[in-house]
Design goal:
The complex is a heterodimer of chains A (216) and B (176). Chain A has 216 residues and is mainly α. Chain A is built from seven helices and no strands. Chain B is globular and about 55 Å long. The longest helix of chain B is centred in the last third of the chain and has 24 residues, at 152-175. Classes of the chains: A mainly alpha (216), B mainly alpha (176). The A-B interface holds A 3, 5-6, 8-9, 11-17, 19-22, 25-26, 28-30, 32-34, 36-38, 40 and B 1, 3, 15-16, 19-20, 23-24, 27-28, 31-32, 35, 37, 40-41, 44-45, 48-49, 52-53, 92, 96, 112-113, 116-117, 120, 131-132, 134-137, 163, 166-167, 170-171, 174.
Chain lengths: 216, 176
């Protein structure tokens, strides 16, 4: 007789339920656990000493790395840098600084708005005739019975989304990301002027003005 | 070596008694996921090694049984990602067929059991897990909810959906 799907499912699940563990499983497990416990106990001093040594090594490596990469200290590789990567680094840092400046203004305003909304709601309950103040409220003015307001006032402000770069900044960023040394060098005004002068001199030397006779 | 674990009451629980009491249940839990006896036994062994490693946390555990099942369950799921479950399902499905059946009927029956396991694996993970846990009759809805980190009503709904979906898919396969 053909079984229905329900019967088949039940039979399969029953088979899973009625599975018996293999004989001697408990003994094997206990043996393995005892072996593991013994290994852990004998390994304990070595583990501690190895951990301590690794910790000390990592601290020493960190200190060494900090000393060698300290900007105040004269670094051995600082003088060997070529001009183009340093230009790229400088441009990158300028763009980063510009982005952070753009980010800082809206974050401050949003923080002020949050605090001002809290302050406004608090002041309205006490004195409805006073205007809302746009300055942070001290903690003692906030009632202890309102933990949500306290938590919100103490929460770190969320940074505002970054403002879009201008077209010039986008072009500058594209050049810096591309990293073409010729284009990077042309960003330097002195280099650009020197290049233009050289071009002009070459042009003039090739097409020098015709010598005309004074009587012609 | 004395394998004992100190509980909050100050009394000590012998790990050997824990193994005796819980290893058959934990074996069934692991076997329902893995469908392989050696792999299930290894999983139970790993569970008790975890207990040994985390014995300092034991005083904070409210329900030791659920905690052990949860460890076994997660270890079995991890282990299942490393093995090829289709091979295990084929072997287990063949072991479910009665040996008294004629060869052609036995083959057909084994194929139907394989189809159940195949469709079981195609279920959404949460539904599959609830269905497998429900196969262990020792577990109530509250315990299943604690193991899976869900509410009891969610577990009941998942169980109903799993059962319905599995039945529909098997019927579709039978008519196709």
């Amino acid at each position: 007789m053909r079984k229905t799907s329900d019967q088949l499912i039940d039979q399969t699940l029953t088979a899973l339920r009625d599975t018996t563990p293999p004989t001697g499983m408990e003994r094997r497990i206990l043996h393995a656990v005892e072996h593991r416990a013994a290994t852990t106990h004998t390994r304990h001093p070595w583990t501690w000493s190895l951990t301590t040594a690794a910790l000390l090594l990592s601290v020493a490596a960190f200190t060494l790395h900090h000393l060698t990469t300290n900007p105040g200290a004269p670094g051995p590789a600082s003088g060997t840098r070529v001009s183009i990567p340093s230009t790229k680094l400088a441009l990158n840092s300028q763009l980063t600084a510009r982005s952070s400046q753009l980010d800082a203004k809206p974050a401050l305003s949003s923080n002020t708005q949050t605090l001002s909304s809290l302050t406004t709601s608090k002041l309205k309950t006490h004195n409805s005739t006073k205007p809302a103040l746009l300055q942070p409220t001290p903690d003692h003015l906030l009632c202890d019975c309102d933990p949500v307001a306290l938590a919100e006032s103490r929460a770190p402000s969320q940074p505002a989304p970054p403002l879009p770069l201008t077209d010039q900044e986008k072009l500058l960023r594209r050049i810096v990301d591309k990293g073409d040394p010729i284009e990077l060098a042309e960003l330097n005004a002195a280099n650009r002027a020197a290049h233009a002068n050289a071009d002009r001199a070459a042009f003039n030397s090739f097409f020098h003005p015709p010598i005309t006779e004074p009587n012609e | 070596m004395a394998l004992s674990i100190t509980q909050t009451t100050g009394s000590e629980v012998d790990l050997a008694s824990l193994v005796d009491d819980y290893s058959p249940l934990l074996f069934r839990v692991a076997h329902s996921v893995l469908r392989s006896r050696p792999e299930a036994e290894d999983t139970v062994q790993d569970t008790f090694i975890r207990v040994l490693e985390h014995q300092r946390k034991l005083p904070a555990i409210r329900d030791l049984r659920v905690w052990l099942i949860r460890i076994t369950w997660n270890l079995a799921l991890d282990r299942r990602r490393r093995i090829r479950p289709e091979q295990m399902d084929d072997l287990f499905a063949e072991s479910l067929v009665s040996r008294t059946l004629p060869a052609d009927q036995a083959l057909h029956e084994a194929q139907r059991h394989k189809a159940v396991f195949r469709e079981l694996e195609r279920l959404p993970p949460k539904e599959r897990q609830v269905l497998l846990l429900s196969a262990l009759e020792e577990l109530g809805t509250a315990e299943m909810a604690a193991i899976l980190g869900k509410s009891e009503s969610a577990v009941r709904a998942l169980l109903f959906r799993a059962r319905t979906r599995l039945r529909e898919r098997l019927n579709q396969g039978a008519t196709a």
